[in-house]
Specification:
Elements lengths: L1 E5 L10 H6 L9 H12 L6 E5 L8 H10 L2 E5 L2 E3 L4 H13 L4 E8 L8 H4 L3 H12 L5 E3 L2 H9 L8 E3 L26 E4 L11 H13 L4 E3 L3 H8 L18 E3 L3 H11 L2 E4 L2 H9 L4 E3 L4 H9 L16 H5 L11 H14 L16 H6 L8 E2 L6 H57 L1
Parallel strand pairs: 1-2, 1-3, 3-5, 4-5, 5-6, 6-7, 8-9, 8-11, 9-10, 11-12
Antiparallel strand pairs: 10-13
Length: 456
């Protein structure tokens, strides 16, 4: 069986950090690879199952490509994130048009909305409800049901007129089912100043007054934990730490010391690092905390919008209300206020529901089969991959590693610059041609008007 999956890159293949980071194979956020990785691990039940990936943002999805997909693949699987948002309607429309051209089964797995945490109905504040309806109907023509991230998205689809457990069902995030019906046991730790604490957030928070209490809270507590690390997830932030020349001087109100920043270019490295090195994870990034949960690390999520809240809520990942953050709030206050074992509660039932959903859309899973020596196709494949481990900040690397990064990056940057130069030349030629055409058109028009005037 050949499956085409929406995704920036194959999450199981080890890629050189320079290539991954500079060419942006993250889809903008390394959290994306967590759910494509989780799906691949679940549906790779045989060596005969092959998964290819398509970055829709970079692909021309015309009829020619649709015909190729229809001839080449048996299934189009579409993992999505916070897709229902005001800045994403063009991609949603593009995806709907592409799905309509396909003749093979298609399924959406894990779509959600993005909105502020308030009591307003999403349908009343979203500009593109008609586009969402068109997209949902296009998918339902090729699939019996759509898998949603959480209850808030379910409420929105219900408001649009779609029916629960008939048109859609809530499955959460596929990344949470990476290890099947059992999550790793949560580490039992006693938080102290020597603990390794992982923070996750967005650098944009540093410049926004609405997030000032959270930023100040983070700054205070990072100083109390000298062994802290800060996980970069967005591509621009990762680039900032990978090479010295990417450093920015615009961070006036720094939330953290840049030398403490780390990142990852593959999922196994991310999970293993947390499992072996981190004692506690906290922050506003849902997948930063999902990675912690998969590593058995106590994790607390501080949601700033519905996309994060609904996933943390559905999977019982401990939540700390951002409005509860005061000038005196310490990390110890947060750590002692939550039940870290809550993430285990109901996980088996959620997993079984997820597998039922996979079956309902016509796919088999690794949990439906037995394997020689217990080695799954996923384990067989990943055992031969040389994953990169943790990507440390340029400032924290020795001179040999710093030099290696520049040597690895140089040919990639040179090639990208050459491509831009060629595109620039091509655009300039097109512009000259259009100017010539316009000049010719106006000369013809001018002569015709002149001749017409002479006749009268």
């Amino acid at each position: 069986m050949r499956i085409l999956m929406r995704g920036a890159i194959d999450p199981l293949i080890a890629m050189a950090p320079a290539k991954y980071i500079i060419e942006n194979h993250t889809g903008g956020n390394i959290g994306n690879m967590l759910f494509t990785h989780g799906i691949a691990k679940t549906i790779l039940y045989s060596d005969d199952v092959k998964i290819d990936y398509i970055d829709l943002a970079k692909k021309k999805t015309d009829k020619k490509y649709a015909d190729y997909v229809n001839e080449t693949y048996d299934y189009f699987l579409i993992p999505l994130a916070n897709t229902f948002k005001n800045t994403n309607h063009e991609e949603l429309t593009k995806l709907a048009k592409f799905i309509k051209m396909l003749k093979i089964p298609c399924a959406v797995i894990g779509v959600g909305l993005q909105a502020k945490l308030n009591n307003k109905r999403f349908i009343d504040n979203y500009k593109y409800n008609d586009e969402v309806k068109e997209f949902i109907n296009a998918v339902l023509d090729k699939s019996p049901m759509i898998g949603l991230r959480g209850e808030m998205t379910a409420d929105y689809l219900k408001d649009l007129g779609f029916l629960p457990e008939q048109h859609y069902t809530v499955i959460g995030c596929p990344s949470m089912y990476t290890f099947g019906d059992t999550l790793p046991k949560v580490k039992e730790i006693s938080l102290n100043s020597d603990s390794v604490v992982s923070f996750n957030s967005k650098i944009e928070f540093e410049k926004n007054k609405d997030y000032k209490p959270f930023v100040e809270f983070s700054k205070r507590n990072m100083l109390e934990f000298p062994n802290m690390v800060y996980v970069q997830q967005q591509i621009d932030d990762i680039r900032m730490i990978f090479l010295d020349r990417y450093k920015t001087e615009l961070r006036e109100d720094k939330m953290y010391d840049i030398s403490k920043a780390i990142s990852f270019v593959d999922v196994p490295s991310w999970i293993d690092y947390f499992k072996e090195n981190v004692d506690f994870s906290i922050g506003s990034r849902i997948h930063g905390n999902v990675a912690a949960v998969l590593g058995g690390v106590p994790a607390v999520t501080i949601p700033f919008d519905r996309r994060v809240y609904e996933l943390a809520d559905y999977h019982n990942i401990p939540i700390f209300d951002r409005k509860s953050i005061k000038e005196t709030t310490s990390l110890y206050d947060v750590f002692n206020s939550v039940d870290f074992s809550s993430v285990q509660k109901g996980h088996k039932k959620r997993f079984e529901h997820y597998i039922d959903f996979i079956h309902s859309i016509g796919l088999d899973t690794v949990y439906d089969h037995k394997f020689n020596n217990g080695e799954t196709p996923y384990e067989k494949f990943t055992s031969n991959q040389n994953y990169s481990g943790v990507i440390k900040s340029y400032d924290a690397c020795d001179q040999a590693e710093q030099l290696k990064r520049y040597r690895d990056a140089f040919p990639i940057v040179k090639r990208i610059q050459e491509n831009y130069r060629n595109k620039s030349i091509k655009l300039e030629e097109e512009l000259k041609l259009r100017r010539h055409t316009i000049k010719w058109f106006f000369s013809i028009l001018k002569n015709r008007l002149k001749n017409k005037g002479q006749k009268h």
